[in-house]
Amino acid sequence: WRGDTDRNGTRGTRAPGERGAASGVGLGLAWVEATRHARPPRPLALGGTLAAVAALVLLARAAAAPEADAALLVAGALFGVGQGLASGALQVGMLDQSDPAGVRLGSTLWNTGVDAGVSIGGVGLALVASRYNLEAVFWALPLFAAASAVVLGVDWTRCLRPESRRAARCK
Predict the structure, then answer these.
(1) What are residue 5's DSSP bridge partners?
(2) Which residues pair with 11 in a beta bridge?
(3) How many Å apart are CA 109 and CA 151, to the nearest integer?
(4) Residues near 55 by Cβ (< 8 Å), separated by ≥ 6?
(5) Which of 146, 142, 166 is nearest to 156 (CA)?
(6) How far apart (Å, rounded) are the C-alpha atoms in residues 87 and 75?
(7) CA dist 62 to 57, 69, 123, 167, Å?
(8) What number of other Cβ atoms are within 10 A of residue 46's Cβ?
(9) Is 5 helix (H, G, I), strand (E, B) or coil?
C-alpha cells in the first residue's frame, strides 16, 4: 500500500479512519431515511451494498496502480458510506418488527450472520490467496459483497410482487 510514512518510517494509508467516519455518515443516513422519512429499509440496504461493491472494485483496481492515494481515499469513503447505509437499513428493518420475538430472532440471526460471514469469508479469502496471489484477494472481495447484493435483491423483488404471501409482511 502506498500512502504517508509515519514517524517510524512505516508506510500506510489514512483509509481506516476515513472509512470509519464515512461508515458513521452512512449509518446516520440509513436511520434518518428509514425512520424519519419512512423509507423502506430494503432498497436502502441494497443501495448501500451496491455502493460497497463499487468501492471494493475501485480498491482492487487501486491495489495495482502506481499512484493510488486518491483512489484509496474515494474507495474508503464509498465503502464506509455503503456499509453504514446497508447495516443501518438492515438493523432498522430488523427492529421494525411488531412482535418482540421477531426482534429477538432478527438480532440472533444478525449476529450469527456476521460471525459466519467473517469466518467463511476469511477462509475463502485465505484459499484464494494460497491458490493465486494477494492481488486475487482484492478481486475476490467484490464478488463476496456482490453475493450479498444478489440475496438482498432477490428478497426485495419477492416483496414487490403482490401475489407473494410475504408481500404483506414486507416493509
Answers:
(1) 11
(2) 5
(3) 15
(4) 74, 75, 76, 78, 79, 82
(5) 166
(6) 18
(7) 9, 8, 24, 41
(8) 22
(9) strand
Q: 4-21 burial by CB neighbour count: b if 16+ within 10 A, else e?
A: eeeeeeeeebebeebbee
Distances (CA, A) of 103 to 46, 91, 166: 21, 10, 17
Would residue 38 be called left, alpha or beta, if left means φ above 0 and alpha means ψ between -120 and 50 degrees? left
**Cell 483509509, residue?**
15
Measured CA to CA, the distance from residue 103 to residue 40 in angstroms comes to 17
φ/ψ of residue 40, rounded to 5: -65, 140
pLDDT for 90-114, tens place per residue?
887 777 766 777 778 878 888 898 8
Q: Which comes out higher in pLDDT, residue 24 or 106?
A: 106
Residue that the C-alpha cell 412482535 belongs to: 99
What is the spatial distance between Cα 99 and Cα 160, in angstroms, rounded to a whole number?
23
Residue 21 near residue 76, CB atoms below 8 Å: no
The whole model's pTM is what?
Answer: 0.73
